[in-house]
Design brief:
With about 575 residues, the protein is α/β, with parallel strands linked by helices. The protein folds into three domains: about 110 residues, Glucose Oxidase, domain 1 (3-Layer(bba) Sandwich); about 110 residues, Enzyme I, Chain A, domain 2, CATH 1.10.274.10; about 325 residues, Alpha-Beta Barrel (TIM Barrel). It is about 50% helix and about 15% strand. The strands form two sheets. Strands 1-8-7-3-4-5-6-2 form an eight-stranded mixed sheet. The protein has an eight-stranded parallel β-barrel with strand order 9-10-11-12-13-14-15-16, surrounded by four helices.
Amino acid sequence: MTKTLKGIAASDGIAVAPAYILVEPDLSFTKHSINDVDSEISRYKKAVSDSTAEVEKIRDVAKKSLGEEGAQVFEAHLMILNDPEFTGAIETEIKNSSINAEAALDKTAQKFIKIFEGMTDNPYMQERAADVRDVSKRIMAHLLGKKLPNPASIDHEVIVVAHDLTPSDTAQLNKKYVKGFVTDVGGRTAHSAIMARSLELPAVVGTGSITKDIKDGQNMIVDGLDGVAIVEPSDDQVAEYKQKGEDFLKQKAEWAKLKDKPSVTADGKKFTIAANIGTPNDMPGVHENGAEAVGLYRTEFLYMDSSDFPTEDNQFEAYKAVIEGMKGKQVIIRTMDIGGDKHLDYWDLPQEMNPFLGVRAIRLSLKNENIFRTQLRALLRASAYGKLGIMFPMIGTLAELRQAKGILNEEKDKLIKKGVKIGDDLQVGMMIEVPAAAILADQFAKEVDFFSIGTNDLIQYTMAADRGNDNVSYLYQPYNPSVLRLIKHTIDSAHENGIWCGMCGEAAGDNTMFPILLSMGLDEYSMSATSILRIRSLMKKLSTTDLKELANQACYVSETAEDNEKLVNDFMAKLNK
């Protein structure tokens, strides 16, 4: 019998294929006392060693298929496997309680998972619970002599169905055979969803019950465009969705023709569509999708992918590679945004009740000037190789901005005195992600060359709702008039003071948000590289003349986020008639 389940559209595309249910092995065990503690610890250490070797292989596969940023989660898994606080606690439990390794592992892992899951105000630490669960499962499987599911062994076309897909599972999916996946749980920001988008696999997550509603081998449809999974579809539905899938692929092929075309509106107005990147390894995607700039280079991945602070020369080479790779197009590099949901094992950051409202980003840099100055010197040296913009994150006050600019200018003067060449095109800007900065954008605009709006944080700070907390996810509202008013004021303030304004948050590549932003006159739209051609195509259909009143309606007439979704949908429906 046909059954339709609604979930979250996690990755675009349509697929029709038999279900492949990813079954976990039985990892149950019996707790018992042991006499030979040393032998038990040796058995445990071998399981950790085998798990480490396995994760290293998965990480290497992931680097090839997903890139450095996509493989970051496996670096986190390796850190857990090498973390004496975790592995040492299990050894201590074996010694002190004289219990078998399985029982010690389970007791310790559950303790860590409970602690992390309880950190509801910190999405980063909550995600660590999933990582501990994944790593512990792998160690347990080795202790019990069981094999975990191996998605890499799938040799026929399927749609993978699972309660949840671990990062390890997702990284092993072979696109030749795996046509998509559907899960019971998860959201758009889950590791598996992010990886699905990197692999360009259709995915629907958070259906609630797909594993109970389907049997292995039953035919199914996954619609990653609208977040729908259909079990045992009728012949008519299969035909309908296959057509929808073909239409989507044709649309993608049409988008691909825009790779080397400028980003212009229907009435000939030119704007910039840029890419967000994490490392120089992301550059192929930037070029393949025709980015006109790099609107956000997240430098924290340099720090997170290192066992110690990256040296000035290491940073210089990474920045220079991206700047030279863009061949004269602008590159906006954000100074390190460590803290909040990004931590470093080698940096003992202060423990805070709410790190998103604590010492993070520019606050951390200003409190650690030596580390900040090292990064600024590397950036200034790299500026000689192309068009660079240096951007400070999470600026909240004019004092912070002036202090950061003062340190930058001091380092610039020192380098010039030494005869080091600095780029003539160097620009200095700031992110608008703190509501206080958005409200005073007219003042900040007098002191920088550009703004870049970080909607991910601006929305959660404006709505007082942690975007990683499912309990308040309904408040993460990009289209809320309050958020839109802050954005409009920021753009207007930039233009009134003769500077340009970009956006590097998720909203820049959002189909509903884009017409509103275009109506506001946003100059630069920076997004995941895979969204660029879709947005460029949408821009070509829109005329700034027709959009003239959309922003004012969205900000000052609409009362809710839902009103604004309807406003844009109605506008687009009229346009497409």
